[in-house]
Amino acid sequence: MQTQLLIRRATVADLPAIVALVRDVVPLMNASGNFQWTAEYPNAAVFEKDIAQNHLWVAELTGQVIGIAALTQDQDAEYADADWDATEPALVTHRLAVSPQAQGLGVAQALLQQAEHEARALGLRTLRVDTNSENAATQRLFPKLGYRFAGEIKLAFRPGLRFFCYEKRLD
Description:
By secondary structure, the protein is of the alpha+beta class. It has one domain: Aminopeptidase, CATH 3.40.630. The chain contains four helices and seven strands, in the order βααβββαβαββ. The chain has helices spanning 15-31, 44-52, 107-121, 136-144, and strands spanning 6-9, 56-61, 64-72, 91-98, 126-132, 148-153, 163-169. Strands 1-2-3-4-5-7-6 form a seven-stranded mixed beta sheet, with helices on both faces. The longest helix is centred in the N-terminal third of the chain and has 17 residues, at 15-31.
């Protein structure tokens, strides 16, 4: 029986578990005033695309998917409004989520450590992430992991929301 956390690339077979995880997370996010995600976003099509591009990673414990993160080099155009050099290539963490039953177990930290590993493997020295201004948990987590606050932006595809940007430089 598997007893330790496994971080691996997501496969199409993981899609039902990923969608179920997001379905569990969204109401909790919304209840805390964080409307970054809704019943419409992110959806199965978004995750199918992430999987097809080898961008989606899962955290698995005892055979269950308990966390996800898309690790890409995609930087939204609005990233130019943050306090960083938006022209610099970076590994960006998108769609980071942890099952409510697994929160507090270090799953998000493990996924962000995978982002560091991937960045180094790709020869990148910069990690970036954004989070909704109402997501207090990630705003506490990112600085603990060495990310610096890099300003606030708005994203065209999420109107009415504010996002805080964080960046980490790798040595």
